[in-house]
Amino acid sequence: MRVVLVNPIGKIGGAERVLLSVLTSLRDRFVDLQATVITLTDGPLLEESERLGADSVCLEASDALNTIGESRHALAALARAGFAAPRALGLAGRLRKLIDSRQADIVHSFGLKTHLLLALRPPHRATVVWQVQDYYSRRTLSRLLCGPASRTAACVIGDSESVARDTRALVKSDKVIAIDNAVDTQRYTPDGKCADLDSAGGRAGVSTGVLKIGLVAAYARWKGQPTFLEAARRVIESTDAEVRFYVIGGPIYSTSGQFTREELEQLADRLGIRNRVCFVPFQADTAPVFRALDVVVHASTDPEPFGLVVTEALACGRPTIVAGAGGAADIITDGVDALTHKPGDAQDLAAKILALVEDPALRARLGAQGLETARRSYGLDRYADQVEAVYRRLASRGR
Fold first, then answer.
1. C-alpha torsion angle, residues 210, 213, 218, 220 (rounded to 10)
2. Which helix (H) or strand (E) holds 17?
3. Contact present, 3 and 108 (Cβ < 8 Å)
4. Residue burial 105-139, b: 16+ Cβ < 10 Å; e: rest
5. Rounded to the nearest 5°, which phi and psi values hold at 227?
6. At what angle do helices 360-377 and 346-357 cross, to 10 degrees?
7. What is the pLDDT of residue 239?
8. pLDDT of 240 higher than 70
């Protein structure tokens, strides 16, 4: 089986960890696997792919293409896309030539940009699979472009049933299936190395007994860092318990719509909590990060397509608070294996954080139940079975 996995960026965020899960699954299921990972920007994803036995290639797209993203101003976004069209056609041609040279059976695309490039210049032989990890109907460019482009895809995988439902409104429904993302429960475990978050954030370490409460997310504006910081202020004002808050991540994408670290630090200053917040740069290996935290917060203000960070935190046995919308809310049962809060509601989030700060038994119970949920429902074996079935079905149809 010859498989090419294509991704817009070379950095490693949640979507890229899904790609690595696919690669890990394939390696264990196809003894004759020949895998290639192609990205449009350089980064650690290429090195990690090679560690898993794949060839890796960076096509190095132009800045004009890399910086195109969704915008609040639809006409401006469309104009930028039109301006970049000639470069896109050239890049699509290079991508097709590379895929054809690998004699691929399956091309698995992990982002809208690579979906569109494959639609512009479809590979001559390979069958195209899309991995959809976003609500395309909510985004202007995505909504306009993904329907026509999907005609070249044989299968569209939504990373949750929530995403699959959304995608079926835009794409021929019999192409769309749901395969919940997975977490590597051999890597994400309660035991193992813990990150030194304070040193990573340039802060002095805290004493034993200080509770560490963290948000692990890219700096996309919908990931809820301001909600988290406002909730932190409320918690600090409401308890005498020793707590420190951690904002872990960075602006890993080249598109607009992201915070800078300076903006978030300035917000912490205005809230009067800068001395109680540690800003930790993006960490490629998140398992030690979760193990270093006493409470993990997911604070996305828009519905989360899946919420890989939630399953990873659960697999590390950490009590977790989840924004109760989208695919993330489907992962857990409120009060059983995690707590939920109303998305964007700092007061509600603060109340849930305080409940965990003040109740060690609740933290322990949720951590244990969350670990059970992750291992039972979101392990790689289940995921591998479903991806393998898709690949074998499509490969046999192409013969």
1. -120
2. helix 14-29
3. yes
4. bbbbbbbbbbbbbbbbbbbeebbbbbbbbbbbeeb
5. -60, -45
6. 110
7. 96
8. yes
**Alpha-carbon span 225 to 221, nearest angstrom:** 8
Cβ-based neighbour number of residue 398 at 10 Å: 12
Report the distance separating Cα 69 and Cα 112, nearest Å.
10
Cα dihedral across residues 362, 364, 367, 368: positive or negative: negative
pLDDT tens-digit series, residues 73-83: 444 454 445 44
Task: Give me the amino acid identity at 45.
Answer: L
Describe the crossing of helices 74-101 and 140-149 by its angle, rounded to 10 degrees: 40
Q: At what angle do helices 140-149 and 112-120 cross, to 10 degrees?
A: 40
pLDDT at 157 over 90: yes
Q: Are 317 and 367 within 8 A, CB to CB? A: yes
Under the banding of pLDDT at 50, 70 and 90, the label for residue 65 is low
Q: How far apart are CA 300 and CA 38, in angstroms?
A: 29
